[in-house]
Specification:
285 residues, alpha/beta, Collagenase (Catalytic Domain), ten-stranded mixed sheet, two-stranded parallel ribbon, 15% helix
Length: 285
């Protein structure tokens, strides 16, 4: 059903205290042991072979702007997978137009068919299909023809695939063992020579479930309180990775974009796409 090929793993990270386990899927989730940092915030996961097809994986980390290590990690050099360089520029150099603030997980990597996903919402109160479909719809609305994404809810244990595909796009909540990690999005795509990645064939998402993050899941973006992290801004960012978007550069020019590589508490503005997000996904599809 799917062509099985490459793993692209994104992490959304902020500098907030650690977590407790979720009830869905495994009690915890961690970056694979073989991951090695090949560029700031970019981790190579290794090679694999499945059904005679070579696989290669990358992990992408997102750090908080308040953390100096995070600021350095997000300043990915242009040309690295998912870095600020990508098609469209990413807002670096002498650019003055925020519409240039976008990049891709790799050139050409996108969905080519209608997709469904499974959601197990156990672990974070207030999360349901209405909200997750709305977040995906934020990206779909900017593309012609639409990226068709629809979900169904389950109580079954889900497992994010870090070494091979299983034919399902899965979203669930678990305790992430890496310090200060909010969530991971794992995207599988076909690969050709060089940096080009072909059609995305599978994506999974794991978001940290610990109550200490003080997730805000309200429908009203204006209802967020000081110290809370807006779940839907985080999810919309991860949905951007899911459809093929990378991070922007860490310049002030790109600060208002959903795909800016950090998020602060009390920021619910990233539920809506910025001009760079819109320009990027429109160009990709």
């Amino acid at each position: 059903m799917f062509r099985r090929v490459v793993i692209v793993l994104f992490a959304l990270i902020v500098g907030v205290p650690g977590l407790t386990a979720a009830a869905s899927g495994p009690s915890s989730f961690s970056l694979p042991d073989q991951a090695s940092e090949i560029a700031p915030g970019v981790f190579f996961l290794g090679h694999a072979v499945q059904d005679g097809v070579a696989l290669v994986g990358y992990a992408y980390a997102r750090y908080a702007t308040t953390d100096e290590r995070g600021r350095r990690a997000n300043a990915k050099p242009p040309g690295t997978p998912g870095g600020g360089g990508g098609n469209g520029g990413g807002g670096g150099g002498e650019e003055t137009d925020p519409a240039t603030c976008y990049s891709y997980i790799a050139n050409g990597a996108k969905w080519t068919t209608a997709e469904t996903y499974l959601l197990n919402p156990t672990g974070i109160d207030g999360v349901d299909l209405i909200g997750t479909n709305t977040a995906f719809g934020t990206w779909e609305a900017e593309v012609t023809p639409d990226i068709v994404v629809s979900g169904s809810q389950t109580t079954a244990a889900l497992v994010a695939d870090t070494s091979s595909t299983d034919g399902a796009n899965e979203i669930y909540f678990a305790s992430i063992t890496q310090e200060n990690v909010l969530g991971y999005t794992i995207v599988w795509s076909t690969r050709s020579r060089g940096p080009f990645l072909g059609g995305i064939v599978e994506a999974d998402m794991v978001i940290d479930s610990d109550a200490e993050w003080s997730w805000y899941t309200g429908e009203d973006a204006g209802g967020i309180a000081t110290g809370q992290i807006d779940f839907w801004s985080v999810f919309t960012h991860e949905a951007g990775h899911w459809v093929g978007m990378g991070h922007t550069d860490t310049t002030d020019l790109c600060l208002d974009q959903t795909m800016y590589p950090s998020i602060n508490s009390y920021d619910s503005s990233k539920r809506a796409l910025g001009v760079g997000d819109i320009a990027g996904v429109s160009s990709l599809y």
